[in-house]
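Structure representation.

___
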Amino acid sequence: MTTIPVHLRTALHLAAAGLPVLPLRQGKVPFGNCRTCARNACGGRPNMKSAGPCQCSDVCHAWAAATTNPRVITSPIWTRAWSQAVAIAYHPGGADLTVVDLDSPAAVAWARQSLPPTRTVPTTRGEHWIYQGAMRSVNGVRDGVDIKSTMAYARWRGPGTGTATALPSVVRALAGKEPSTVRPAPPAIMVPSLAGGGECRHRTPAYLERGICMAEQRITDARTQVHATVYRTFLAVLSVHGRCGCLTDAHITQLFTAAHAKGESLRHCTDAWANARTALGL
């Protein structure tokens, strides 16, 4: 008789309840892309920013791999992944949810004073407050506070207590506030425009998006020397795109999110980005 991995059983229950799930490997990060999808050669998942109908059945593309389809979840490839998994993650935005990740007692205290009550889930260092409704994901909106919804994943830590209430405007407003000086969000990068005001050749979606996706994959594929890989990747991106003004906050957020998924703190990401700019004289 085949033993069903415990995480697989839980994942099936969550998927049946409408949560798109994915396994997390050692280090509590998503499984890397397969050889076919390495460096985004497949064009990406249909629900990712990059275009292209990826038909891969492997556990690829991090949050974009999350699914509620039991046939996918129990496929041989996914079953092997579940047997190696150390935790389960889910895509909140895919279930029309937003997770306010409170990463310290001080952050929890702030939420209790400032946010409407909703379903709460205890975490190792704080709590997840779960609201009904999706929004863009932003890290470091306050000291110890991240927002995880669309294009992000949250670790499943149990059902929690209470009932999820409607996403309040105060949480949506956090995405537009100035970042904390302690755990800053990916900054808006101001770079010199092209000399003479010419049009940036990197604004072609295919060229720029492919470059960003390749940089994301380089970070995701790092097995050792993650700090150095993140810095070198930021340096490479800025050396190509840093002087023409084509990089947007969304591109920088993609790179920071990939580094954060590998265990890099937001402070390390911000420092690496700043150091790369300094090295290039930007």
Notes: The two ends are 62 Å apart (CA to CA).
